[in-house]
Amino acid sequence: MKKALLILLVLPLMALGQEEERGRIMAFMEFTVKQGHSAQFEDGMKKLKACYNDNGGEDGWTVWKRVQGEGSVYNVVSAMDNWAEMDEVDEGWKGCYNIIRNFTAPHVEKVKRSFARQLPKWSQKNHEGPHKLVQVSSFIVNNNTLFSEAIKEYIDIMTEMDEDLSGYWSYSMGVGKDGADYTLASFYKDYAALDETSNLFEKYEKANGKKKADEMRDRMKKAGEKWSEAIEDSWGYIWERKPELSN
After folding, report:
1. Which SUPFAM superfamilies match (predicted)?
2. Residue-wise pLDDT tens digits, 37-74
3. What is the distance between the alpha carbons of residues 147 and 83, in angstroms, rounded to a whole number?
4. What is the topology classification, in CATH, of domain 3-118?
5. Contact 191, 122 (CB under 8 A)
6. What is Dmax (Cα atoms) for the chain?
7. What is the rounded CA–CA span in Å between residue 167 and residue 170?
8. Looking at the domain that runs over 120-236, which CATH code has it been given?
């Protein structure tokens, strides 16, 4: 989603360095909807999507609704390759101001805007979608060096065990004082997938023997100790994708 959409949605309501491979920039618009106004807000979002597409708009976005927690919260997520895309004018939004003013803004209590950059080297390589759910875990870090070491050790262990990494990492850009430094997004095809469990060490032990498996367990434990020391706070939410609002 380009700057046009970010501005249009907010207007009526009036960094962290990394040496990792540069991933895409993620843009988030989090809407807390007034109590009892979810249906009206979603109807407005559908009208906005139709207006944009009727105007020949070509950008895409995904809308997620938070499953648990206080209030009715939606997150509009889009991606761009670089900041220069924010300078582009998207004619697809031409004529859509009145829809926002009349059909979405009146139902919104507050809006939070944020950006993050993906960390491909920290993230799983295989991605099959679209998914129904995403579990987003957020972390405030008090020791970035120790945190990065723990992640690197985890990646080394998973690579040696011939396992894909778990989830998709990103780091926040220009985060507020109470915002997360890093987030981990784990996708699920449906709610039943949340019940599925697997023990990688048991699988590894069957293939390589108990001695090697115990070595891996010990390495993972030490990485976990570094992780715990580096984390100041953490929290998480499950979000459900709203395909009818996404583009």
Report:
1. Dimeric alpha+beta barrel
2. 999 999 999 999 999 999 998 899 999 999 999 999 99
3. 27
4. Alpha-Beta Plaits (3.30.70)
5. no
6. 67
7. 10
8. 3.30.70
